[in-house]
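tokens incoming
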């Protein structure tokens, strides 16, 4: 298996979902240098959500300015796999568990 990319290490992004089970929600994701990912729901109108940390994520740069990233949210049992296109500011992917599968799409904002 090829080694995953480290280009997301130390970076933070906001994903605003337009389709899928979390449509309308904005989530901030921070990809840590230790290979973990932290995410939390953020809404301009309400308090920011509590951060959840997952031990491991994987990512690949699949084309210039396009990164594919995936992680398992252990508490919910969902795996989220998203392609981030930095050039267009769009995200596309899939959220799935052992019983459900949902296409997701939305907007990408680079925080840092």
């Amino acid at each position: 298996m090829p080694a995953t990319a480290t280009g997301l290490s130390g970076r933070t992004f906001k994903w605003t979902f337009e389709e899928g089970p979390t449509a309308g929600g904005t989530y901030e994701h921070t990809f840590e240098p230790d290979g973990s990912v932290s995410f939390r729901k953020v809404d301009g109108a309400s308090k920011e959500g509590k951060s959840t940390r997952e031990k491991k994520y994987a990512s690949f740069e699949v084309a210039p300015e396009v990164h594919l990233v995936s992680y398992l949210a252990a508490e919910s049992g969902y795996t989220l796999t998203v392609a981030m296109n930095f050039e267009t500011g769009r995200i596309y992917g899939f959220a799935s568990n052992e019983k459900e599968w949902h296409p997701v799409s939305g907007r990408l904002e680079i925080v840092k």
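note: The CA atoms of residues 12 and 30 lie 4 Å apart.
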